[in-house]
Amino acid sequence: MTELPVPRPSACPGLLRIVQALDGGICRIKLPGGVLAANQARVIAEAAQHHASGVLELTNRSNLQIRGVRAESEQDLIRALLDASLGPSVADADDVRNLMLSPAAGLDRQQHMDTRPLAEDLLALLQDNRALHALSAKFAIQLDGGESLCMLEHAHDLWLRALPGTPQQLVFGLAGYPTGKPIGMVAATDAVQLVEAMLLTFLECAGPEQSRMRQLLECIPAEELLRRVQARLPTALSPVPANWQRQTPAADAPFGIVAQRQRGLAIVAASAPLGRIDAGQLHAVTELAQRHGDGSLRLTPWQSLLIPNVQIHEADNVLAALRQVGLLTYRAAPWPT
């Protein structure tokens, strides 16, 4: 049997590093863009039933955790998840796959840019460039396409936000939120180079106690850091334009039916009580996604989930089915007792 990679020491759970809690082990599965395919969802549900307590937790970074992993089942659980392509493409890169998108990326009617292709390139960079594996397991990047459905309350180490218009431009900032003031602008076609230069510069400048961008900025001004980043780039970064302010997104978690930018299609959104579902609920929601959507689920940073690409005329039935499964489908819904 193939030996599993040995994860680096950290208190953060990961797919390869199961961290103990009072109810057993926690295995955190990082989902690219918060998207979970139907076959992967079934593997997770079955693994949670066979190797853990059957309890699943939706996280505020659009990831999924399996709770109550039994010590004797850890290796079997990890192998099942890796076989379903739920792990990193490079064995020791699990910790650095911290890239947040809108859960409605590519579907949102307000978006200025479909961030998914760029997100795919950034995740490949984080995994393929082994120098970046030295980043902290908490170091995080946000890519904001200007969607109405977007979590802006989490501070990220590096954020990029799309501006309206063509050619596509992104403003970027450090240790804050996409509503804050950016420090520069880059063409979307050069964004991967910028991110690589910024992360390598961070690792070059940061000391042992500076695992996050905000800690480094206490010692090095952002302007100096930007000057060092610019020295790594073949083209000049642009100054921040006057119209950098972001339109305020929806304040709360999505519930119910949300029309997509694609004509005739909708997102159906429901929330998990206390951010937890069980394996049976995940199976049931996956069946709905396959029957009425495109077979995928999207997890949100509000600890809720979406079924995308549902025909508008079927959306009410899907919403009722989610309620029947035990999920919350409107804001005033009572918590189950």
Description:
By secondary structure, this protein is of the alpha+beta class. The protein has 3 domains: 19-89, Alpha-Beta Plaits (2-Layer Sandwich); 112-145 and 153-232, Sulfite Reductase Hemoprotein, domain 1, CATH 3.30.413; 256-325, 2-Layer Sandwich (Alpha-Beta Plaits). The chain is built from 8 helices and 15 strands. The strands form 3 sheets. The chain has a 5-stranded antiparallel β-sheet. Helix 1 (38-51) packs antiparallel against helix 2, helix 1 (38-51) packs antiparallel against helix 7 and helix 4 crosses helix 6 (222-232). The longest helix has 15 residues, at 191-205. The chain starts with 18 loop residues before the first strand and ends in a 12-residue tail after the last helix.
Can you tag this structure with a few keywords?
single chain; about 325 residues; alpha+beta; Alpha-Beta Plaits; Sulfite Reductase Hemoprotein, domain 1; 3 domains; five-stranded antiparallel beta sheet; about 20% strand; globular
Helix and strand arrangement:
Layout: E1 19-21, E2 24-29, E3 35-37, H1 38-51, E4 55-58, E5 64-69, H2 74-83, E6 99-100, H3 116-128, E7 141-144, E8 156-162, E9 169-176, E10 184-187, H4 191-205, H5 213-217, H6 222-232, E11 256-259, E12 265-271, E13 276-278, H7 279-292, E14 296-299, E15 304-311, H8 315-325
Parallel strand pairs: 6-7, 7-8
Antiparallel strand pairs: 1-2, 2-5, 3-14, 4-5, 4-13, 8-9, 9-10, 11-12, 12-15, 14-15
Helix pairs in contact: 1-2, 1-7, 3-4, 4-6, 7-8
